[in-house]
Structure formats: structure tokens, C-alpha cells
């Protein structure tokens, strides 16, 4: 029997947690059909991630697989096409323990209708749900990257931007969705819920203001 380069128990816990969180995210409408991908760090060299093409509303533990930090499969299955966007974050920051990516209505409309290269969330009480934020008197600038099918190139672009200005908490892909990361999966989910709620609020405010 070939020994896996990660703990089987840790992997099973990660698969269960991702399947549970995935169904919860789906119920909010942030990951329709087979869109989105979620991952958890297993150790310094591997992560558990959703398999490609799985319906997030029906996500099961068997829909999770392991990959190395180069995005290569380390267990049976085909990893998400966007795996390199997850592993880039794990390689960039060894404190990142989970990554969640969603395809919500709000993030899609905001990034397609308004062509700015960032969205700023400021003065919201809910910003305190983000790791490291302690007051509503805070400002989060979320960069927006143009969508592309060249995921390796996009991962390099994100990495370069992080090296230049220390992007924190999240980024958006135009017409595509939100990426957010945190030290562990519960914190990452809390952060995702806050960000998706704030993006929906921001969308409503812009509509009301006729911006």
C-alpha cells in the first residue's frame, strides 16, 4: 500500500467539512449548479479541493480530492480547473488554511457593469467579520482581475499583485466571482458570508443612487 503524503484522518475531516460548507454556500445562492470551488490546506505540501464539475448543492465527501501545491492530483479525480488560484494562495502565505471561491449574482453584476479595477467597502459594521478587522471604521479595497481561461497566467498576475501591494482577504474576477481566504475553514466561511452580503448591499446602493 502506497503511503499518502498527508494524513488520512486530516483528509477525511477536510472532505467532510468542505462538503458541508459547500452545501451551505449553495443554499445562499452563491454557487449555482457546478460553479465555484473550495479547498482546505492538509499540510505544507498538499490541499483538499473540490473535484471539477460537481454540483455544489449535492456536494459529497467523495467529491473532494487532494492536490499538491503545484495543482497536480494527489488522489483519484480531476481537480477544479481553477486549482492553481488556490495553491497560489497557499504558497504565498503559509498562514492560509482555507480558500473559498463563489459565483454570486452580486459579484458578477458589480464587476461587469462597473469597469473599475477595484471595489471599495468602507464604513460597514459587517467588516468586523473579517480576520483582523476590529471596527466599522475600516476600509477594504478588493481588486478586480479580468477573466481569462489561462488560469496559470491569472495565478501569476494575482501573485505579482500580492507581492506589490499586499492584497488582503479577497479579490474578484470580472464577471466570474469572488475569492477569499483565511486561517481556517470556519473563519473563511464567516468572511465569505460577510463579503457576499456586503457586495449585495453595495449593488443595491449603486442601483438606488443611479451610479
TrEMBL record:
**Residues involved in Zn(2+) binding:** 101, 103
Q: Where is the Class II aldolase/adducin N-terminal domain?
A: 16-203
Query: What does it catalyze?
Result: 5-(methylsulfanyl)-D-ribulose 1-phosphate = 5-methylsulfanyl-2,3-dioxopentyl phosphate + H2O
Keywords linked to the UniProt accession: Amino-acid biosynthesis, Lyase, Metal-binding, Methionine biosynthesis, Zinc
**Broad class of enzyme this protein falls into:** lyase
Report the co-factor binding details: Binds 1 zinc ion per subunit.
Note the superkingdom of the native organism. Bacteria
- Name the InterPro entries for this protein: Aldolase_II/adducin_N, Aldolase_II/adducin_N_sf, MethylthioRu-1-P_deHdtase_MtnB
Tell me its EC number(s), please: 4.2.1.109
Pathway(s) served: Amino-acid biosynthesis; L-methionine biosynthesis via salvage pathway; L-methionine from S-methyl-5-thio-alpha-D-ribose 1-phosphate: step 2/6
Per its Swiss-Prot or TrEMBL entry, what cofactor is needed? Zn(2+)
The record's annotation in PANTHER family points to: METHYLTHIORIBULOSE-1-PHOSPHATE DEHYDRATASE (PTHR10640:SF7)
**Would you identify the family this protein belongs to, as annotated?**
Belongs to the aldolase class II family. MtnB subfamily.
Family annotation (NCBIfam families): PRK09220.1 (NF006672), salvage_mtnB (TIGR03328)
Q: What does this protein do?
A: Catalyzes the dehydration of methylthioribulose-1-phosphate (MTRu-1-P) into 2,3-diketo-5-methylthiopentyl-1-phosphate (DK-MTP-1-P).
Q: Output this protein's name.
A: Methylthioribulose-1-phosphate dehydratase
Name its species: Alcanivorax jadensis T9
